[in-house]
Design brief:
This protein is an all-alpha fold. The chain has one domain. The protein is 70% helix and 0% strand. The protein contains seven helices and no strands. Helix 6 runs antiparallel to helix 7. It is globular, with a radius of gyration of 18 Å.
């Protein structure tokens, strides 16, 4: 249980780092760190660690979220001639403050919702909800489309984390289908970003407001 809580604390720290980092390449690397931590989570439940499908799920998460997605992001970033600095709508200090407020709200909400006893181990619900909140913050408060893709991935990671207590119920095929859907979504987003940059010489979504017929 102590190891589980340590992983949850590490995930929360990764979420806060998402909101404070100012370089796109560092954000892409942080996606790999978050994916690795997520791959470990299903194996930390004592009643599911011996199930073969849980190991299969963890390996799939490791391959897709910790290796595949970061590689695609790094490859896209290398091909795009963009400023490597993250450009925010909301300042980094305010973004970090919003992340801390989201964490405090998640801790408070955990004490208010009537969960079935033993459904969520300690810190799992706050870590998952904070991950979702962080992803949505990146989508809303950052200018570059690539940063918003990373936010979308972070939000999906939070949703997956909420479902990990059900990993021992034989739901691996549903979870793998979700992973495949996200993989396709990121692939399409990568193509879209490439064409946006090729056509408009920028991936700053704020410039779309100035488009004219």
């Amino acid at each position: 249980m102590q190891l589980f809580q340590s992983v949850m604390v590490a995930l929360i720290c990764v979420n806060l780092a998402y909101l404070a980092i100012t370089r796109l390449r560092s954000l892409a690397r942080l996606t790999a760190v978050q994916g690795t931590l997520l791959a470990v989570v299903p194996l930390l439940f004592p009643d599911t660690a011996s199930h073969a499908h849980v190991w299969l799920l963890s390996l799939a998460i490791l391959a897709i979220k910790a290796v595949g997605f970061p590689w695609l992001l790094a490859r896209t970033l290398a091909r795009l001639e963009v400023n490597p600095v993250v450009e925010p709508y909301l300042g980094f200090n305010l973004s970090l403050l919003a992340g801390v407020c989201g964490l405090l709200f998640s801790l408070w909400l955990e004490t208010r919702l009537p969960f079935p006893p033993g459904l969520f181990p300690p810190l799992l619900f706050p870590a998952a909800l904070t991950t979702i909140f962080t992803g949505l913050t990146l989508v809303i408060a950052r200018k570059k489309a690539l940063t918003q893709v990373i936010g979308y991935l972070a939000a999906e990671n939070g949703i997956f984390l909420l479902g990990t207590p059900l990993s021992g119920q034989g739901s691996v095929w549903l979870e793998l289908s979700v992973l495949l859907d996200i993989f396709v979504a990121v692939f399409v987003m990568g193509i879209a970003i490439h064409h946006i940059n090729k056509t408009f010489e920028s991936i700053d979504v704020g410039r779309f407001c100035s488009l004219r017929d």
